[in-house]
Amino acid sequence: MSARFALQNEPLSAKDEAKAKKELRETPELRATELAKLKTLVKAEPGLIWGDSDEFLTAFLRPSHWYAESALELIKRIADFRSKNWSLISDLEPKTEEQRINSNVVNVIPERDQEGRRMLLVNCGGSWEPSEVNTDHLFRLLYLVHLAALEEPATQVNGVVVIMDFKGMGMKQVKAFTPGFSMRLLTFIQHAMPMRLKAVHIVKEPFVFNMVFQLFKPFIQEKLKTRMFFHGDKMKKLHEHISPSCLPEDYGGSLPKINYGGKEWFKPLMTAEKSVKYWQTIGLEKDLKK
């Protein structure tokens, strides 16, 4: 396992604490008040079984800017989304996805960007074989990675950036993007993801990409639209958002060409196995009784 890959569970640095205070209103006093309030709200919510530790609830209060009522609404949306997709994600854990993790359709860039954000790479082009990793598998991978990322306080504060690489996309990849998958992914991103999604960068997209994007476009809300950027093969446009010093050579960066994949980050992912499995015990009561 490369030392470059590790879940960073340590407390916030002074720099990230300052960012949390400036952007999220996070102070020791507000933490205490809103955590106590959210615990009361969660406990009183009928039909909801949810964790109530300070560490766990903090992950929902941060993207809600430390408003307990907003955090509860986020938790309810997450529970509802999980309920509607229970058969797909209720049994999710790293070991169940090991084979597909090694496909490198989803890859984690070990370095953070200049803003301290995690960078996730999704290869949706010619290197993706839908017959081996279908869209259900792809969604499970994305969901698993986001559960692991929730374990990192620095990621909760700084957020994540997604790079979607469509190089070599052909008709079999176009056909794999069904309306059902498109709606599930957008619902998750826009309503049921407790991560701060700061940007989605579309790169190396061919002409046929437009066929896929037309499925998504009508359902993309304004907030997400403002965070989506289309670069084609012009990596200098990508560099306006992400410093080349943080990117591999594959994307015009100064870091070495990508020579890592699922095998490298699977073992660090396994360190989050206990917390990922914990998600099987929370949600709507009616689902947990099945």
Question: Helicity level, as a percent range?
Answer: 40-55%
Tell me, briefly, the overall form: globular
Strand portion: 5-15%
What is the makeup of the main sheet? 5 strands, mixed
Number of helices: 16
Q: Provide the succession of SSEs.
A: HHEHHHHEEHHEHHEHHEHHHEH
Q: Tell me the total number of β-strands.
A: 7
- Placed side by side, the strands forming the largest sheet appear as 2-3-4-5-6
Helix and strand content put the structural class at alpha/beta
Structural account:
It is a single chain. The protein has 290 residues and is of the alpha/beta class. It has helices at 14-24, 28-44, 54-61, 68-84, 86-89, 98-101, 135-149, 153-158, 171-176, 179-191, 209-216, 222-225, 235-239, 262-270, 273-278, 285-288, and strands at 48-49, 106-109, 118-123, 160-165, 197-203, 228-232, 283-284. The strands form 2 sheets. The chain has a 5-stranded mixed sheet with strand order 2-3-4-5-6. Strand 2 (106-109) and strand 3 (118-123) form a beta hairpin. Helix 2 crosses helix 3 and helix 2 (28-44) packs across helix 4. The chain is globular. The model has no long low-confidence stretch (mean pLDDT 95).
Furnish the topology, listing elements before pairings.
Blueprint (H helix, E strand, L loop, with lengths): L13 H11 L3 H17 L3 E2 L4 H8 L6 H17 L1 H4 L8 H4 L4 E4 L8 E6 L11 H15 L3 H6 L1 E6 L5 H6 L2 H13 L5 E7 L5 H8 L5 H4 L2 E5 L2 H5 L22 H9 L2 H6 L4 E2 H4 L2
Helix pairs in contact: 2-3, 2-4
